[in-house]
Amino acid sequence: MALLVLVSTVSWTVDKHLCMGRVMDISLFAHADDCGMEEAMAAMDDQSIQNSCCDDESFTVQGQDDLKLSWNDFDLEHQHFLEAFAQSYLNLFVPVEEIPAPHEKYPPPILVKDIHILDQVFLI
């Protein structure tokens, strides 16, 4: 549950560097590394050539800022469900002093003959 809250509240930024239509680098939360084409163009000292083969793309997914939920925000059916679920979950951890034996009040049957010996059925 904590992981779900963390993922839904954090803003995610994905940055991609494209060179000639191919994805060269993808980065989360930081700037993607370039392919080195800009340095090669700067080393050639040619201002007339435009660097049209490289492109940077980024998109951001904004996280949720409002996490305050009120009991009154839920419908009556949701309130009943949450209350019943909480009660049943908390009753799982109530300690039992003595485990009841279901056959405590009933005496064992009176054996007239030993059936295992008559049928010659033995546990090995």
UniProtKB/TrEMBL annotation:
Pfam families in UniProt: DUF8199
Protein name: Uncharacterized protein
Species this chain originates from: Flagellimonas hadalis
